[in-house]
Amino acid sequence: MFAAVAIQASKLRLRRGQTVDFSIDDRETGFLIRSGALVLDLTLPGTPRQVVDLLLPGDVLRSSFVPADANARLTAVCATEVWRLRWSVLKALAGDDPTLADFLETSIAAQMARQALHIATIGRLTGEQRVATVLTDLALRSGIPATAGEVGFNMPFSRRDIADYLGLNPDTLSRIISGLRSQGILARSERRRTVVRDVRALAALTPAAPSLTAITDSNRRPAVEAA
Amino acid sequence: MFAAVAIQASKLRLRRGQTVDFSIDDRETGFLIRSGALVLDLTLPGTPRQVVDLLLPGDVLRSSFVPADANARLTAVCATEVWRLRWSVLKALAGDDPTLADFLETSIAAQMARQALHIATIGRLTGEQRVATVLTDLALRSGIPATAGEVGFNMPFSRRDIADYLGLNPDTLSRIISGLRSQGILARSERRRTVVRDVRALAALTPAAPSLTAITDSNRRPAVEAA
DNA sequence: CGTGACCTTGACATTTCTCAATAATGGTGG
DNA sequence: CCACCATTATTGAGAAATGTCAAGGTCACG
């Protein structure tokens, strides 16, 4: 699908740790995440970095959504494929293809909504609630249900990435994850992978669970229709 | 300007405390803030509310940017005029009027960037830095420079609104503001108004000052061209 | 004037951060 | 294939920031 985009876009194949420039010769740029994962982060002078968004396949990023004059970066956290093209080109293609236009609109709206939820998460939830929120989000977006109540997903993000996403520090995050393990909610799994033993119990820890489900569904539906 | 929009939109005149529904019969809706101010808030079950955005004249809100299935509200904090219309109608008008299209794109991009900065503010700044950030933001967006180094602006938002925006509680916010007053940075001003005695000192307290300036400029330029 | 909403301030409780030590992991070169 | 090293993760103890609760003050409006 999106054959026209595939022709126009330059396909970036990134390795873990590689960063991407936000614009091609100062023009507004669009990015489509095809596989892998990236973090979008922002570092205000004199403060620890803040991860603004975790980008997964299907997400769309537009360079003007990133604050100018801020120390922002887009970094792959594992082998990742990103399609990059001028925003004006993408817009023109969307003009000819309502399916593409709809995909872009829906994806951006879902991210905006997720952003609002992220603000509420950072601003109002306790550490444990924040961690439950991001794990639930990842489980919904990239999880594959295994046996009853159990979900496993790749966890390309480091502790530091997740801590910076949640506005916690890595030590605190580590303590919270240990706590979830001893409660039997998380399994002691291999590196770069997370296994949720008890999805319901995890969801019960975060007040954002219903909203996350709603956003994921609304984003997935049109994407499926488009396929 | 935007005469076509003026014809199509329903003009809502809101009093302080009035809330607005996000959609007209479940269709996606656009809101243009013409005067006054509103807060967009989100309350996750069992947690204090979080103000996601402070909306001022020139801002644009789209209903799909608000998480579904969340307890979200849009509330006027003073006498406010909002133009409301179906998003599909607004999009059609933008199709005929590049100036309008540009205004919408720029305004939404500025808000998205501001949102990213808001995340960094809540996630990584201390209480005092957060307060300095929001005051700087408001001074840039709605302030009128008085004498040298001094800026005054209306402050329609209550302590609670600002505290909920910053993820602090009102007591802590009050203490911080008292501190800024005793440092001579803020004046002891009348209710619903804030006077910044020393803009440079205030800006020096927030690591986000350069980014806020950049966003405000980039948002203002096209709006002026459009006028 | 009286009432209710909003704001300020103090004392104390709680959470999270900081710093430091230790353990686990994964990649690299012999 | 194994040993080594750099990075990442875990955990404890104490420090600092923010939250909670309660009392009192101020302001706008009827």
Secondary structure: elements and pairs:
The structure is a homodimer of 227-residue chains.
Chain A lengths: L2 H6 L1 E5 L4 E2 L8 E7 L2 E6 L6 E6 L4 E3 L8 E6 L3 E7 H10 L1 H27 L2 H16 L1 E2 L5 E4 L4 H8 L3 H13 L10 E4 L2 H7 L3 H18 L1
Antiparallel strand pairs in A: 1-8, 2-7, 3-6, 3-8, 4-5, 4-7, 9-10, 10-11
Helix pairs in contact in A: 2-3, 3-8, 4-7, 4-8, 5-6
Chain A binds a DNA duplex (30 and 30 nucleotides) through helix 6.
What characteristics describe this protein?
homodimer, disordered C terminus, globular, DNA-binding, 227 residues, 2 domains, Arc Repressor Mutant, subunit A, alpha+beta, Jelly Rolls
In short:
The structure is a homodimer of 227-residue chains. Chain A has helices at residues 3-8, 87-96, 98-124, 127-142, 159-166, 170-182, 199-205, 209-226; strands spanning 10-14, 19-20, 29-35, 38-43, 50-55, 60-62, 71-76, 80-86, 144-145, 151-154, 193-196.
